[in-house]
Write a structure and sequence with these properties.
alpha+beta, Beta-lactamase, seven-stranded antiparallel β-sheet, 16% strand, globular
């Protein structure tokens, strides 16, 4: 194989694979118009089926970027507005109560001061989501099954919204930031506002035009779906088999975490930003999606998960400062808890994607070595 300036990256991934970090991986780097793709290992521990470009992975939270593009495309088409109150389509959120402070008991509430807007769902600032530490509201969210621990939610969208609507908000809409739930609520709004399923809309607006034939809410060919693993006590234990929920249509098409895809498909998706596709999403909306959307308090909340130097745009993380070796102001993307990561660095004309089947162990650093090597070589 010809020499590559990204040899350090490919060597790192092979060393991680042979060292047992994950049984296999697929990765791609696109730099100044040239693409390199590598695959190594197997779909399962001890298996013989080899990883390849057509291997399907659970995207987990990398689903959020397609969610942002889909929502903004529909805004561009006039299906709803960024500053429309969501109660028009989500009456469950018409008159929520608000906790006196995010860690208050769930009965210690005040009146809501302003309506929840569509932009609050996109920016994850509407008032519900995943806390970074224990809280009474987090316990209730988990008990109702509408938290991030269920991927995708195991209930129909109307049931999901009834449970979400029974909860008080952690803060006034727009004032803070909590992860994940806003993306799934956004999906329900999209379906109700258009009268079409999220999967149908994704196919019509994004995956179909981009030729992303292996991307959807389930793997149509489960034999290509990698087994998912969770690292526990230094060993990889099976988390999800190919014939589980991701091998059949789900009851909830979850825009927070529900898509499966391949590395070539996701690279084609990110091409909406790098080889601009105004027919998919106009330039002004691409800029809006990948720019900081948060105020100071919400940004501080987000940085408890994202880390210093980062913030949140509309369904994507955005770098504001180079607080880590791989961070560059203007870089955007995100990670998926099932072992996926993808970022675009416009300043270097650089896109990187790594899909593994090793679940993340926390919100940061699982992919630090990969991104450090990528940016050192770029």
């Amino acid at each position: 194989m010809a020499d590559s300036r990204f040899d350090e990256v490919w060597t790192l991934l092979e060393n991680q694979r042979t060292g047992g970090r994950f049984p296999g991986y697929v990765a791609a780097i696109r730099s100044r118009g040239q693409t390199e793709l590598r695959a190594g290992g197997t779909l399962a521990v001890g298996g013989t089926a080899a990883m390849g470009p057509d291997t399907i992975f659970r995207l987990a939270s990398l689903t959020k970027l397609p969610a942002g593009v889909l929502a903004l495309r529909l805004i561009h088409e006039g299906a709803f507005g960024l500053d429309d109150p969501v109660a028009r389509w989500l009456p469950e959120l018409a008159e929520p109560k608000v906790l006196r402070h995010p860690y208050a008991e769930i009965t210690d509430t005040v009146a809501v001061q302003r309506p929840i807007l569509v932009r609050h769902l996109l920016s994850l600032s509407f008032g519900l989501g995943m806390y970074s530490q224990p809280a009474p509201l987090q316990s209730v969210i988990d008990n109702l099954g509408v938290g991030a621990q269920k991927c995708p939610p195991p209930m129909p969208p109307d049931d999901f919204m009834a449970r979400v609507g029974s909860l008080p908000l952690a803060f006034q809409p727009g004032d803070g930031w909590l992860y994940n739930t806003g993306s799934d609520v956004l999906g329900v709004l999209i379906a109700r506002a258009t009268g079409r399923s999220v999967g149908e809309l994704l196919a019509a607006k994004i995956t179909g035009p981009l030729g992303m034939d292996s991307t959807g809410f389930y793997a149509k060919d489960a034999s290509r779906l990698a087994t998912g693993y969770q690292p526990i006590d230094g060993r990889l234990q099976i988390r999800d088999l190919p014939n589980s929920v991701y091998s059949r249509p789900p009851v909830f098409e979850a825009l927070a975490s529900g898509l499966v895809s391949t590395v070539p498909d996701y690279l084609a998706f990110l091409g909406v930003f790098t080889e601009p596709r105004d027919d998919i999403l106009p330039a002004e909306l691409r800029r809006l999606m990948t720019s900081d959307s948060l105020g100071n308090r919400a940004r501080r909340d987000a940085q408890q998960m994202i880390g210093p130097g980062g913030s949140w745009g509309l369904q994507t993380e955005v770098d504001l400062a180079a607080d880590e070796p791989w961070m560059v102001p203007g870089r955007f993307g995100w990670d998926g808890g099932t072992g996926t990561t993808a970022y675009v660095d416009p300043s270097r004309e650089l896109t990187g994607i790594l899909f593994t089947q090793r679940a993340m162990t926390g919100p940061t650093y699982d992919f630090a070595a990969f991104w450090t090597a990528v940016h050192r070589a770029a």
